[in-house]
TrEMBL record:
Gene3D superfamilies in the cross-refs: PAS domain, STAS domain
Phylogenetic lineage: Bacteria, Pseudomonadati, Myxococcota, Polyangia, Polyangiales
CDD domains (UniProt xref): STAS_RsbR_RsbS_like
Residue ranges the record marks as coiled coil: 13-40
InterPro entries: Bact_StressResp_Reg, PAS, PAS-assoc_C, PAS-like_dom_sf, PAS_fold_3, STAS_dom, STAS_dom_sf
PAS domain residues: 33-92
UniProt keyword terms in alphabetical order: Coiled coil, Phosphoprotein
Source taxon at top rank: Bacteria
Domain STAS: 182-293
Protein name from the UniProt record: Anti-anti-sigma factor
Domain PAC: 112-165
Length: 299
């Protein structure tokens, strides 16, 4: 039995139905792929958005940005161009405007970023870092859509602030320890204290020497205070004057001040300054000063 030839119209309809079925299958596949990509973007630990440069509004935000700000996607979209002006910290707005002016000039693969503070639904400001690059251009080649990725820096900033505060506390503690080491007041015996000084003496350290010496004389009721300057470097006029001031102050509290380790340079400076040496006694070495002090106390 011979098969009758198909009508040309039926042939075209069959081919058209096949093409439609193929297109529908491709569409379903594309929709599935699009849904998968949307889920991936929505689950990213960073906030992702698409910003229409020409209309000045967001056209897409992912779930993380919604979580970060506390506003729904519809609320964010309704804010339109007022989103950033209303939520960004006032102190950051001017620098952001300068930054955003670059969007229309971005090259295809160029990525820029900026840090700023933005207010969430609770009213708290969160530090974020925003990265931007070109997502699409219009028919004329002008930048149309910007792809943005926002990273929450709040916890990192808080950790940095805590580390900085801890570092500052450590510096203060170390400085205090160094001051104590740099101006040690050593009890030799009942009524006798000694302060061996080493290194350079600047204005701050000179003030500390005076403070420690006077407090030590008062607290220990010292009759003799020994200032050993054998290890002092760069004995200039300021240093010599500071030591003489400490000796004079100690004598006013009733203590006999003994200066030991005086080198020729310091002796010349003391003479040149016309220092009244009646406020203190000098000895060549610390050992001689201690012997003299013990003899003085025994009288």
């Amino acid at each position: 039995m011979n098969q009758e030839p198909l009508d040309p119209i039926d042939t075209e309809l069959a081919a058209l139905r096949e093409r439609i079925a193929h297109l529908e299958a491709s569409e379903r596949q594309l929709l599935q792929e699009l849904s998968r990509m949307e889920r991936i973007v929505d689950k990213l630990p960073q906030s992702v958005y698409l910003f229409d440069v020409q209309r000045r509004e967001n056209v897409y935000v992912n779930g993380d940005l919604i979580t970060l700000l506390g506003h729904s996607a519809d609320e964010i979209k309704q804010m339109g161009s007022s989103l950033l002006p209303s939520l960004m910290h006032p102190d950051d707005w001017a620098s952001y405007q300068t930054y955003a002016a670059q969007f229309s000039q971005l090259r295809e693969s160029e990525v820029i970023h900026i840090d700023y503070r933005i207010r969430d639904l609770t009213g708290a400001y969160r530090w974020v870092r925003s990265f931007e690059r070109v997502f699409s251009r219009d028919a004329c080649g002008a930048v149309e859509i910007i792809l943005g990725l926002v990273q929450d820096l709040t916890e990192e900033r808080h950790a940095d602030a805590e580390r900085a505060a801890l570092r500052e506390q450590m510096i203060v503690a170390q400085s205090a320890a160094l001051r104590e080491i740099g101006t040690p007041l050593i009890p030799i015996s009942q009524g006798v204290v000694a302060m061996p000084l080493v290194g350079a003496i600047d204005d701050d350290r000179a003030a500390r020497i005076l403070e420690v010496l006077l407090d030590g004389i008062t607290e220990r009721r010292a009759q003799v205070a020994i200032l050993d300057v054998t290890g002092v470097k760069e004995m200039g006029e300021r240093t010599a004057a500071a030591l003489c001031k400490a000796a004079r102050a100690g004598s006013l509290l009733g203590a006999k001040v003994i200066l030991t380790g005086v080198q020729p340079e310091m002796a010349r400076i003391l003479v040149a300054l016309g220092v009244n040496t009646s406020d203190f006694t000098t000895r060549a070495t610390l050992q001689e000063a201690i012997t003299h002090a013990l003899d003085h106390r025994a009288r």
